[in-house]
């Protein structure tokens, strides 16, 4: 199975930016003229827009809910059981969506759960990578706050861009590479601390976790996109089901290794609260939204959503946690936003 041959296209033929260019090329300069676009193209644009906006909203809430779920600065619940429930919920939602499709459209070769070894054997790799990345995102909050976490998550753009070039042979323009450098500068600026002897607000262990998470997230995202787009006609819910099944299996192992005694002595749901439940629901819906974006757009659109979510998280944190929007954070966020814009502009010039 050679995934390097996979082009950065979805099954309908293009990314969100390609759709915009197609509309312009066909002489639809205004919003009113979009009504003349063929229904199929309108449906494509609407679908991509909905999943992208959903991902942006859900991602902006992730860090807030994780921080909110802590009591006295620590997690009273088991993060491995929470992660297992996230995978279980995603699997259940995928099955529910499939059941509806089977009822309305019947069972076909593209939406049946039965599969071959060659198709299913590739899913354990991203499932394992996502497991480690998801567990790290809980522990990184010992070193960063919610807005700082969202800033550091933008390192995913760098890892995604580099891995796109290596794995999928996707060419990036000079403007896009310049955007990566600006992103690093923006992340660093936002972390500057003028009220302490430390230059950066995030200590070294936090940065190491952030870099590892970026590499894991980038590789898992690119690899998953390659898997999903290798068979474009395959129903996304079937592909999600097999990915989440392996995710559940790996999380069971994590529970046995890390929290077996706590689960046996205190119970599976010890320390859970309403916020914990909302966090699990948010993570599950975010995971499904990510797969939808990779199916119908690409990983670059996904990291754009993360960057916008960073700004939303910072604004909400001001009201919930008394977060102060320092000048360094404001300048860093601005630079990150400019880098995202340049990355998008560079994509148009490829």
Q: Catalogue the unreliable spans.
A: 1-35
Total helices: the number is 14
Overall pLDDT metric: 77
Using the alpha-carbon principal axes, give the shape: globular
Radius of gyration: 21 Å
Beta-strand residue fraction? under 5%
| Alpha-beta content class | mainly alpha
Q: What is the H-and-E element order?
A: HHHHHHHHHHHHHH
Biggest sheet details = none
The percentage helix is over 70%
End-to-end Cα distance: 27 Å
Annotation, overall tally of beta strands:
0
Keywords: Membrane, Transmembrane, Transmembrane helix
Membrane topology: Multi-pass membrane protein
Subcellular location: Membrane
Pfam families: Nuc_sug_transp
Compact summary:
It is found in: Membrane. With 350 residues, this protein is mostly helical.
Structure description:
The chain is mostly helical and 350 residues long. Helix content is 71%, strand content 0%. It has helices at residues 16-25, 39-68, 79-105, 117-120, 124-139, 146-153, 155-167, 174-190, 204-230, 236-258, 260-266, 274-296, 299-320, 327-348. Helix 3 runs antiparallel to helix 10 (236-258), helix 3 crosses helix 12 and helix 6 (146-153) runs antiparallel to helix 13 (299-320). The longest helix is centred in the N-terminal third of the chain and has 30 residues, at 39-68. It is globular, with a radius of gyration of 21 Å.
Structural key phrases:
350 residues; 71% helix; mainly alpha; globular
